[in-house]
Amino acid sequence: MKKNKIGILFSDILGAGLTHDLFSRILNEFKNYCEQEGYILFFLNSHPRYLVEHTFMDQVKAEGCDGIFIPNVNYEMPEVQAMFKSGIPIVTCDYKSEGAISIVSDNVNGVKDLVNYVCNEKNHKKIAYISGDPESEVSKVRLKTFTVACEENGVHVRSEYIRQSRYRDIRDVTRKTEELLNLPDPPTCIFFPDDYAAIGGINVIHNRGLEVPKDISYCGYDGVNLVGLWDPQLATVAQDTEVMGVTAARELIRLIENGEVGDGSEIVIPTKLQVGHTVRQVY
Hints:
Blueprint: E1 5-10, H1 21-36, E2 40-43, H2 48-51, H3 56-63, E3 67-72, H4 78-84, E4 90-93, E5 101-105, H5 107-121, E6 127-131, H6 137-152, E7 162-164, H7 170-181, E8 189-191, H8 198-207, E9 217-219, E10 236-239, H9 241-258, E11 266-269, E12 271-274
Parallel strand pairs: 1-2, 1-3, 3-4, 4-5, 5-11, 6-7, 6-8, 8-9
Antiparallel strand pairs: 10-12
């Protein structure tokens, strides 16, 4: 009797692996749903040395995978692009491609909600933005949305308030926060790329003896578990990792059992604004 098998391709730039707050929760929900449906899961080896002699598709064929889930990887790798053209069922996260179905967190409305809260409800005009990985489509969407949403709220986005970093990179976010606070006219509120990386910026603020939110305001993105442990509680946008994981599993299994491949469509999962207590009211 043939056992249905799903391959998982997961790799992130900073090497956090399964300790990655966001993707670990998506993968856990994905795993639970697939195993409940009788599927066996297999992680593809993404180590550069292994890939010298073994492509991803070599591994897929050797293991007899019926479908592939790609929550995060460098999607521009030729080996990854080849998978989208292979005719095997594939589901991705936050990356649209013909030959796959993408489960997409609603980054547009998530960023809009946060900007509207900071600009409209809290009346901030000097807002800085530390973006995530420059090559990431998610980063591009969020930065563009931030700029447009600020302008719609009558807030001019100053070039010196925009900084580039990477997701989960505490050290680099530390440096970028220092740069922003050292400006002759520093921002009153800083948008960090994600909740985990925000630790770097928060440490800078605390080390300077600044009081939050009285002296400086900030917010994150993701809604990771550690947010509730901070005092004051971080203003952030929570991504629904449970729904993302379950939806990814359900869609991939549907493709497998119907003998179909992805059609380039997206399924958008709503986010939720958590206002916290790190953004002060400006009068």
